Amino acid sequence: MSTLKIHHIGYLVKKMDAAIRTFEDLGYQIMQSTVYDDIREVNICFLQKDGYCIELVSPVSDTSVVSGLIKKFKNSPYHICYETQDFNRDYKRLTENGFIAIDAPAPAPALQNREVVFLTSASMGMIELLNSPD
Ligand code: NI
């Protein structure tokens, strides 16, 4: 039985401040102000609306992990993040079922340094797996 729970939708944006203003015009509220993730060289801001959590991700350098993605996808949603109570078990299960890890598990500064890993599937693209806080 899966313990995966949708936590947020990751959304690539070229200009963070402009993106926040536009999301606010649509009725989103800032949950957490912009945090710099020095591991991935991105700025991250969490917004919410109607129970949905959106993570805005904006590269701050050409060597950022999303610099290539944003050239390809422009401003666009690009991953769904799933929270799990059993990170190691779900990480193992997903990799045994066709998902390929595209980095090693590492702390996420914008999420209380909880462990995250990104995986990709040939049939559905990229997901993020997030360790539960407890
Ligand atoms: Ni994310």
Task: Give a verbal description of the structure.
The chain has 134 residues and is α+β, with helices and mostly antiparallel strands. The chain contains three helices and nine strands, in the order E-H-E-E-E-H-E-H-E-E-E-E. The chain has helices at 16-25, 67-73, 87-96, and strands spanning 5-12, 29-37, 42-49, 52-59, 76-84, 100-101, 106-108, 114-121, 125-131. Strands 1, 2, 3, 4, 5, 6, 7, 8 and 9 form a nine-stranded mixed sheet that branches. The longest helix has 10 residues, at 16-25. The chain is globular and about 40 Å long. The structure holds nickel (II) ion (NI). Nickel (II) ion is lined by residues 8, 10, 55, 79, 81, 128.
What are the main properties of this structure?
single chain, 134 residues, alpha+beta, nine-stranded mixed beta sheet, 3 helices, 20% helix, binds nickel (II) ion
